[in-house]
Design a protein that fits this description.
Layout lengths: L17 E5 L3 E6 L17 H8 L4 E2 L8 E7 L2 H12 L4 E9 L6 E5 L2 E3 L7 E3 L8 E12 L3 E10 L6 H9 L25 E9 L6 E5 L5
Parallel strand pairs: 4-11
Antiparallel strand pairs: 1-2, 2-4, 3-4, 5-10, 5-11, 6-9, 7-8, 9-10, 11-12
């Protein structure tokens, strides 16, 4: 049995968490890129969304996470009952999420779907892999917004990505499977394209988050434009 050893040490994140909306039950925030969602076991990875917010909002808990390099919208529960209600919505796929990304190269089709099962492989930690035998079903939709050139040299495609499932690294590995990794993605080829080497961050942003407020029943449609 392989033993997973996590040697990652997050560099300091000097950007603030932006609180976009709040009431006594939940928070809507914009997470900066380069900040962990939850503190790691290594004390050097203490700084995180949860660690920062609990200082001001005692008892708050994470309902979902964004990858370290991903920025954008997160909903935070301010008590256990709200957490349970929101987690139920996520588990029932009643929460709608849309991400904005810059992909390496020009994607040929204007829209499409990637349907590829994703599996863990302790030998490759923290990478995930596509595996039809041990992988869990994973499905993502994409829509091209525009095709551009970075610094007149590197072709890029701005897309909207809609995950229909919620597997670890799903959008990153599905974009690699598409043949167009997310620019700045260190795990799945997004730094290997000519001109991508100096990209300062993962070009992936959670731009739309829609769910039902657990108490009021109101549909919450949060939007936050990508900073790239």
């Amino acid at each position: 049995m392989s033993v997973i050893i996590d040697t990652f040490i997050a560099p300091p994140c000097h950007d603030d968490i932006e609180i976009l909306w709040q009431d006594e039950h939940l928070l809507l925030i914009n997470k900066p890129s380069g900040l962990l969602s939850l503190s790691g076991k290594n004390p050097q990875n203490r700084d995180s969304v949860h660690h920062r917010l609990v200082q001001t909002f005692p008892g708050c808990t994470l309902v979902h996470r964004l990858d370290f390099g991903t920025s954008g919208l997160m909903v935070i529960a301010r008590n256990k009952a709200i957490n349970a209600a929101l987690c139920h919505q996520f588990s029932q796929r009643a929460v709608s999420k849309v991400y904005t990304a810059l992909l390496c190269g020009h994607v040929e089709e204007d829209e499409g779907t990637v349907n590829a099962p994703i599996a863990k492989d302790p030998a490759l930690f923290p990478l995930m892999t596509i595996c039809s035998f041990t992988g869990k079903p994973a499905r993502s939709r994409y829509r091209v917004v525009e095709r551009v050139y970075q610094d007149t040299k590197m072709p890029l495609t701005r897309v909207e990505l809609t995950p229909e499932t919620g597997r670890t690294h799903q959008l990153r590995i599905h974009c690699q499977q598409l043949g167009h990794p997310i620019l700045g993605c260190d795990l799945y080829g997004g730094l290997e394209w000519p001109g991508a080497e100096e990209t300062p961050r993962l070009m992936l942003h959670a731009s739309v988050l829609s769910f039902m407020h657990p108490l009021s029943g109101e549909t919450m449609n949060a939007r936050h434009a990508a900073p790239f």
